[in-house]
Fold each of these.
Amino acid sequence: MNFRWLNALLWGNSVALSWMWGLGLFFSVQMTFMFGLQGLLMFAIPNALGLMLFGYLTHNVAKSHSGGQESLAIFFEKFSKPFRLILYLYQIVAISLTVFALVNYLFVPLQLASGPLFGIYLCLVVFVILAAGCLFGEEFGIGKIKLSHALMGALLVLCVGTILFGLRPLVPESFKWSAPFPESWRGPSFFGYAIPLVIGLLVGPWLDLQHWQRAIQIHREKTSIRASYFFGGSIFFLMLLFHGCLALWVMTREGAPLSAAEGLDGFNYAHDLVTQFFSKNFTAATSVMPIAYYTFLCICALTTLDSGYVALKWFLEKNVEKSENMLVSLIPKQILGSPIPTFVLVGLITLIGIWAKLQLEYFMVFYASFFVGYAALAIARCYVPNSQQPLPQIRMFSMSSMSLVIFAFGYLNSQTPLLLLGSIAPLAYVFWLVFNADLLRVVTEKAGEVIEAASEIPAIKAMAKTATVMTSSDIVAPQDVHALGGHFEDKWFVYSMIASYSDTNSVGNVYFGMYAMFVGKARELFFNRAMPDFDLKTTKFYILTRSFEHKFVREAREFDTITVKIRVADFNRKFCTLEHQIFGSDNQLLGKGKQSLLFVSSKDYSLLDIPSEVYTAFMKYL
């Protein structure tokens, strides 16, 4: 038990360090600069609560699904399929934001190079930062990363202690609830920041691959995800509080550099306020103070980059291995499955951002608007039944892009209503999607239950029997060629035939083995209707029967009309379950059952995931 708590604490430390990216590092300074202590707490509290909420809910998901220690991994594999592109984009923006912030608000203000050498210096700094992230990511995989982060955490505590000891005038009376000089800021109101930040930070971890990989690994180690993320959220809150209070203390010092850079939008940005203070107010004799602070920043960035490298490698390798895309097969898997091309892209984004004089907030707008809807839908799909339904990709992307533009307009023009609309609109749309889909599912299920229950009432059963007899004797079957191959009734594929002498045994009733033959024929016709382009000569996969179950209820005799109904009942990553019912001439149930299908490669008969063609064809009949 003690070991598990220690393991949870180690993972909590890793969670906190990996989440202390550019957003937590430097935006805490900006929020303190703009709004004082109230701004810092408004940023720090929902940030920490978002981590704890992720840990609490994923802990419940892991416990509620079968699979033991692999339950969360199995769940994530199915859950992540429709979010693969968004998960990847989220990681790119997060890593780019971190590298950009560290370079722009630490190394650039130090002015270690100027003039013609500045561009070369900048490229070298970006390269070193990314190379360090790759090196530590390769050296420490997900199984050992908590140990490397434990060493990093100890060094970080030493840096924080050095700063606090050296800045002993850091006393509570120096802190101001409101910003000491709010007139220096021109931009959106406090609530224009507060509500989007609260929304974005509470749902943010749900699209972060680093946290999903950690939660899966924590569960594999039989450690509480909930406890680990409680420790992580608490440590992270203390780190934000330290950095924000340090910025507030700097702002109250006489002679402190209170200059804030004016951005392209005309707003004042002070992310590098503490960096300026340490670089200008400490001589070589007291250089341990700035070194401790710079080391603090580098540790926080490095523990994000190595986590990002490990998570991207895990995610890309899994998806590239299972991809059957023709274009993907043309590129070596070693390249596609490596995070290094992504890190090169991050380096280019960083250099372009610094050259264009962008600010941290221009990256952050994605997390307050674009990713909000996807994150909210991800949470809903963890708990709302029928979560395997296809994601409305075009509609979600359109709504997210629209909310991003609305939020950007609101930010650039200091319009609080537009900022709120850009953050709330995706949530409202996701609520509408989930509510309508779930309501339709409940109504359909309840209607089916009511009809099934009503069919057992004697009076209704008699009426149904009479109607069936009248139909068979008075109505001529339609001369529709499609009826020869069966037809659909809602989600059920229906095929009818007449039992003949060859289907019966010596006493005149239909031989028991024929019912499986009837179901098999109906199944083949269902496949033909659902996948008309399937060709055995060119197919990459075969569909095989894994198991077959049938419960006999009544007998049928020669010349009885046999009706077989079959539908898709359920599926997971590997197997699909079909349900069938067989009815006789008087519409009485003859039997029912189910069968499980598996899919193998047509080349070597190796087991496959359900092919995308089958998934697309079957989903509309689920």
Amino acid sequence: MSNEPLLSVHNLQVEFKLDDGAILHAVKGVSFDVSTNETVALVGESGSGKSVSALAILGLLPRENARVLPGSAIHYRNRDLLGMTPRALTTLRGAEISMVFQEPMSSLNPVFSIGFQLIEVLKKHLGLNGKRARERAIALLQEVGIPDAHTRVDAYPHQLSGGQQQRVMIAMAIACEPRLLIADEPTTALDVTVQKQILTLLAELRQRRQMSMLFITHDLGLVAEVADRVVVMRDGEIREQGSVEHIFSAAKDGYTQALLACRPPLDRRPLRLPVVEDFLSGAPAAISTTARPRGLQGNEEIILEVNGLSKNFHFREGLLRKREFKALQNATFKLAKGKTLGVVGESGSGKTTMALTLMRLTPASGGSALFDGRDLLSLSAQDAMPYKRRIQIVFQNPYASLNPRFTAGQLLIEPMQIHAIGADHRERVGLALELLRKTGLPESAFFKYPHEFSGGQRQRIAIARCLTMQPDVLICDEAVSALDLSVQAQLLNLLQDLQDEFGMSYIFISHDLSVVKYMSDEVMVMKDGEIVEMNNADAIYANPQNSYTKQLLMAMPRMDSKLKGRSA
């Protein structure tokens, strides 16, 4: 590997002017290099400045309110990027430096086919037209693993899965054989198997094309899969940087140590996951050595018994034809009182459909769900009302599930009013304040609106709203999937504490298998609407029986094994 820096960022400082006139210093003197044929991981939580740094490199910061301060320097192959004209930067982008963004659906134009958008890049930077451009577009789709590329070249973005959309974005990024690829959270919210495929693809492309890569992520678990060096950022500053081996085995900075420690381990279940504050107090962090017992003995009280649950959707094709899609088929399982059933599977496996059906948010096509001896699915709307209190759901996206016009206090009080919980308004306010405290929010949050909170705080409000009903069963549908690792650890600790205090039963749905193992007594694996395997959590991870379960487990990022392989 050459030591010559392909990209050199020195003392980068970026500020934003906010609507109220205040100045936000987003990046504060950041310096790092990317050498030829090297992958550097830029790691940090939301708001750390990593994506802003990447946008500054490409000259893509919003001109109306962002400013790179004097004294900053960005050089690519000894060329001053900050001193380039917009026209020169446009020529450089795509041709020599390309970027893969986090959300492909916001980057791909929905009204043009993927082939059209690929050919547009080839025309602009390589001057290809007609048949040659189309053949090159098909070859690029084949290179990134799009099946039946000759046909798919004419497909529109909405006709592709999330993983396929991200592959198209990668094809566009490598179309002109760039020397540097910037990948900004390219696997966030993807299934574990698709994530593994994308990481493998990026590693293969880098090696085959001799590219350098700047890989941006909030998950240190992915870094060992792809990176040579790591740069850890927090609050716009670099906290630590070094080789993957050094950072993972001998991290010096407390924040780096926290990021490494707060991901649920696979080999044990600490009573409490460490969080960032544990490591930043100045004193050595005390990692819990007490194990949390998990698993079922077989004599537990059953609170929910589901038999043959099915859900079919019907779609019209043309004027006369209808197509049936079996989203959930004959799901049968039991949920023990005070225990957690983990549910894993890829997108489209039927996990969320099962949750929505149990909540009566979508009607079942067949089966039963016995709760206290009564079938929830056959009750009338009036008879079902008391049971709605006792089964609640926390959705993945708190941005969409919280009414933006209500304060946190109003969001908590409204369900109490509907279900006549509390004698009067004063008592309900008291209950709401107590729930805010239990979920780790200050009393001042009572008067704030959803947009004034972070993503993790919004999810805490969503959990508190469910707790107003004092439920027996709480369904968590990807409730921590899109959160930073430290925020995720806080919420997992919270859910554990609430289960200990109230004896609630959880149905915990996630595509993150390490989180599911940490939280679950029993794990249910779903594929194509069917349950393919179910067992105690430790047993299913130690000795999976189904080939699909084995495939999921093999796709999990494993920091330790990768590092051992590097040093071997």
